[in-house]
Amino acid sequence: MSGKLPSEKQKAASKKQSLADQGQASKAAASELQSSADHSAVTKHGL
Known about the structure:
mainly alpha; 70% helix; 47 residues; 2 helices; single chain
């Protein structure tokens, strides 16, 4: 993130990753969501 507030996609990815870390969600799904959110941030902010 470039110092901007996180997007809704990034917030959702973070929450999913947290659940995966606690064993309550799929790590693969969390990783995919995180990758998608990261890609969107790069496209939007040029990270």
